[in-house]
Amino acid sequence: MFELAAFLKSRGEGSKASLQIRPTVLGPGVLAIVLSVSTFFIVIVAMFSYGWNRLDMMIVTCMAVLVLTYPAAAVFRDYFHSVQTLHDQLQNFRLANTKCYCCSVGHVTESGQPLPLCDRQILTKCIEIWFGSHQSFEDDARSLVLESFADQLGRHYFPYWLWLVATSPIFWVLLDITVDHIRLDHKERDRWPYWFISALGWWMGAVPSCAAAFFYSCKLFSAPRANKWNDRLMNLLVILVMLPIFACTFLMIEALFQWMMPLSPWLSATISSSSHIALAIIVWNGPAWIAKLRHGRAK
């Protein structure tokens, strides 16, 4: 408590404190995403290389998603539950709810002698001197921390830019296909722009849109269940919510490809990728924009 008060007081008059929020579980979660995405897209590229038809690819891909996302569902349900708990605690931040050692032992030492000073009284007095009142400090702390939550972690408690970093293997793998098409002896050399633009569309659009549905489901069913089998069923429920969206994304890409067949490959890829990137940006950031707009109108 005192550290937070000192941090807020240390900023210059009228300046905004630079508060970085990084949940500890976020690190292992990002590493898990990197490994899962790398494995997943290596499987996809292997199917492309062996000339599998699109229907078989979609079936195998959905099975791979089921296998890879089950442990991820368990991890991120726990992650969202812990972050939501922290968010709720900060939202109900009160100086009166804090505890100090001297109060917990009844203001006496182990030998039974009374303690001359109370830590709570000292800290409360410092906070009142710095902020005018403890209510002003509480309002300032809540405003800063909750605003930092929204700005840095976003609606899904997982920032979009960090998702792009964690899933960069998608771009690497598809970029490898692009470079392969640039070879002078490649029979489809003129299609390399199609692969490059499609790589951007998958990396920045199609996959993040599916991930948004996954994160939303994890957050919705994040509360732990008393029975371990019910908890496992919740993990499966998260996947069952996401799989249709993932399959629809595949079908949408295929439908756009067939509809735009008369167009040049690079132009059809540009239209398809732009649509998916725009959708991903809206899905990840739209609710936060609406919340900020409502907050501004409320003021």
Automatic annotation (TrEMBL):
<feature type="transmembrane region" description="Helical">
    <location>
        <begin position="57"/>
        <end position="76"/>
    </location>
</feature>
<keyword id="KW-1133">Transmembrane helix</keyword>
<keyword id="KW-0472">Membrane</keyword>
<feature type="transmembrane region" description="Helical">
    <location>
        <begin position="25"/>
        <end position="51"/>
    </location>
</feature>
<feature type="transmembrane region" description="Helical">
    <location>
        <begin position="157"/>
        <end position="175"/>
    </location>
</feature>
<keyword id="KW-0812">Transmembrane</keyword>
<protein>
    <submittedName>
        <fullName>CCHC-type domain-containing protein</fullName>
    </submittedName>
</protein>
<feature type="transmembrane region" description="Helical">
    <location>
        <begin position="266"/>
        <end position="290"/>
    </location>
</feature>
<feature type="transmembrane region" description="Helical">
    <location>
        <begin position="195"/>
        <end position="216"/>
    </location>
</feature>
<feature type="transmembrane region" description="Helical">
    <location>
        <begin position="236"/>
        <end position="260"/>
    </location>
</feature>
